[in-house]
Specification:
Elements lengths: L3 H9 L5 E2 L6 E2 L4 E2 L8 H15 L4 E5 L8 H10 L3 E6 L18 H21 L3 E4 L4 E2 L7 H18 L5 E5 L9 E2 L4 H11 L3 E6 L9 H10 L3 E6 L16 H13 L8 E4 L8 H21 L2 H10 L2 H12 L4 H10 L6 H8 L1 H8 L11
Parallel strand pairs: 1-4, 4-5, 5-6, 6-8, 8-10, 10-11, 11-12
Antiparallel strand pairs: 2-3, 7-9
Helix pairs in contact: 1-9, 1-12, 2-9, 2-13, 4-5, 7-8, 8-9, 10-11
Length: 386
């Protein structure tokens, strides 16, 4: 039998990092949509993030994206976050929104462009020093569109060289988290296309380099939980970028496309000890047609629900069924946990934490949505541009 008190205790320790860019404007490749009340600067993004944490109790950190969140004084920004009950989380680099990076960034055939890209990554480590952030998160849009466009092996050599320089700059308690993506914007070769490539580079770099699993960055039918289990087993799972995708893109709310997959992933996290380790549970989403803050709250709740179900798996019964070869019995143990309605349990957890049992309803009553629409008038809204 599952110890409900232990499940509740574990859920109270959960932390889901929200991304600063999810509070800003975003859209498709063709149009960035605006919405009244959207933040105009990093401080207003943090103010919104503070609402999410206050209502859910499990979103204490906010990831920054440079230069989208560029400020003159990063230490002051960290202090502002602290005053709002938050901490600054992963620092995300941007080597994909500059004309110089048309043919790549740290894998570019031109050494001058590679130097520029590495310089930006080193600047991000400087920002980590100023904010107290522990994680440098790297995603590269580098790749090629046509056979023969560039030397595939040489690009991997350039990637190794650039990552090694940045790795050497990391300080005590700092990590490099390397993300991978199957394709897009590169359509022939992508320089970090899969977990194996990311793992190979991280293994060579050393213990401060770990892999990020973005749940939307896989081919249809990919067994993501197997990747999670393997990376955990090897001590190389640094974190998640939680989101969903139905076809070839991503950044929808986590759990929207396949909540059963999210449960399976979280079970492997629990099974592999990742829930109580240094694995970072981060959202990486863009809310184009829905209201930003409620969508982020819903995403945090979706992660909580999948985690609660994973914690409810009767692991003793599962192990017994597996050892005895009881295929249907083993599957039934997992399905019993997945089919459990954990919303009342999570409501109890929130109330025991001094929170409203329903964060979305609490947000609707808070008046924050109306307040930011009324107050955030004029200036330029934050967004990633397109």
């Amino acid at each position: 039998m599952t110890d409900l008190a232990a499940v509740k205790a574990a859920l109270k320790t959960q932390a889901v990092e929200t991304p600063s860019w999810a509070y800003g404007n975003s859209g498709t490749r063709f149009k960035v949509f605006t919405r009244p009340g959207v933040p105009r600067d990093p401080h207003e993004k943090l103010a919104d993030a503070a609402q999410v944490h206050a209502l859910t109790g499990v979103a204490p950190t906010v990831a920054l994206h440079i230069p989208w969140d560029e400020v003159e004084d990063y230490a002051a920004l960290a202090k502002f976050a602290g005053e709002h009950g938050l901490r600054l989380g992963a620092i995300n680099s941007n080597t994909f929104q500059d004309d110089d990076y048309r043919l790549g960034s740290i894998c570019h055939p031109d050494a001058a462009v590679r130097r520029k890209a590495v310089g930006h990554l080193l600047e991000c480590v400087d920002i980590m020093d100023a904010t107290g952030s522990a994680d440098l998160k790297l995603w590269f849009a580098d790749g090629t569109n046509y056979p023969g466009q560039d030397d595939v092996r040489a690009r991997q050599d350039r990637l190794t060289e650039g990552l090694s320089e940045v790795y050497a700059r990391l300080g005590d308690g700092q990590r490099m988290l390397l993300e991978y993506k199957l394709f897009e914007p590169a359509f022939y070769t992508t320089d970090v296309p899969d977990w194996g490539t990311a793992y190979a580079h991280c293994l060579k770099l050393g213990p401060k380099a770990q892999v990020v699993v973005d749940t939307g960055h896989h081919a249809p039918g990919t067994n993501i939980e197997f990747i999670v289990a393997t990376l955990l087993r090897e001590g190389k799972l640094g974190g998640f970028d939680f989101n969903s995708r139905f076809y070839a893109d991503d950044d929808l709310m986590v759990g929207a496309a396949d909540p059963f997959q999210l449960f399976r992933i979280m079970y492997e996290v629990v099974r592999g000890g990742g829930f109580t380790s240094e694995v970072a549970f981060m959202l990486d989403q863009c809310h184009n047609i829905e209201a930003k803050i409620p969508a982020i709250i819903r995403s945090v709740m979706n992660v909580q629900e999948a985690t609660a179900k994973a914690l409810l798996v009767d692991r003793s019964a599962l192990a017994a069924a597996q050892v005895s070869g009881d295929v249907l019995g083993a599957n039934a143990v997992l399905m019993d946990a997945y089919n459990t309605d954990v919303r009342p349990l999570l409501g109890e957890v929130r109330e025991e934490m001094g929170l409203d049992a329903d964060p979305l309803a609490a947000y609707a009553r808070s008046g924050w949505a109306e307040r930011i629409v009324a107050e955030r008038v004029g200036g330029e809204q934050a967004g990633w541009g397109a």
